[in-house]
Amino acid sequence: DAKTTQPPSMDCAEGRAANLPCNHSTISGNEYVYWYRQIHSQGPQYIIHGLKNNETNEMASLIITEDRKSSTLILPHATLRDTAVYYCIVRVARSGDKIIFGKGTRLHILP
Amino acid sequence: GAVVSQHPSWVICKSGTSVKIECRSLDFQATTMFWYRQFPKQSLMLMATSNEGSKATYEQGVEKDKFLINHASLTLSTLTVTSAHPEDSSFYICSAPPGGSSYNEQFFGPGTRLTVL
Fold first, then answer.
1. Cβ contact A95–B103 (<8 Å)
2. A75, A99, A101, B43: which has the fewest Cβ within 10 Å?
3. Contact by Cβ (8 Å): B94, B33
4. Which residues of chain A lie closer than 8 angstroms to B99, CB-CB?
């Protein structure tokens, strides 16, 4: 069963902030929100993860609602190289556990 | 971050032959590795969990006799597609989670594109 719901595709103008939403209304108390992305014909790349506080790293920011039922990944200044499929995944924070991918959001950055 | 490599990056083979794909963790040890398959325009589908020193665990619907997995060392897992057919043509990706508490994510290989003629 899918634990997350994401829009199938989104467009964003180059240089603007890309905001990718994710719904995870059945998230458990010990589950984190992870984001990975997959550029065409490459393996997935880890972006960021968080439990309940907002997180920021050199790639992106993660905003998690107070009830933890949804989150938004923010790419602050999107470039053409950010064109990819973005996967939102909820899972416990044990790296050894398997990851089940949903369908993700295909983000198109427009020049 | 940690690096995972795959070899070969692409392979073309004739129907009925077997193909071996390697997944290596280059700068860390991985007692567990995961194998995924991805068809065009689709998401990654988990095939199996590779366990060092023991049998692999296959997901429902994945034929263990067709997709042989060997995890002979802490840095190497291999996936052998036996008697490959055109429907096995796909993008195969492995992932490896570094051990220890300092990592919470997994690292993925670059993928191997298999084309069966």
1. yes
2. B43
3. yes
4. 95-96
User: Do the Cβ atoms of B113 and A102 come within 8 Å?
Assistant: no
Q: What angle do CA B74, B76, B77 make, to 5 degrees?
A: 110
Q: Give the contacts of B60 (CB within 8 A, at least 6 positions apart).
A: none
Q: What is the pLDDT of residue A1?
A: 47
Q: Could you tell me if B77 and B33 are in contact, meaning their C-beta atoms sit under 8 angstroms apart? A: yes
Q: A46 near B105, Cβ under 8 Å?
A: yes
Per-residue pLDDT at B7 exceeds 60: yes
B40-69 average pLDDT score: 94
Q: Burial level of B74, CB count in 10 A (0-12/13-18/19+)?
A: middle
pLDDT recorded at residue B72: 84
For B86, phi and psi rounded to 5 degrees?
-55, -30
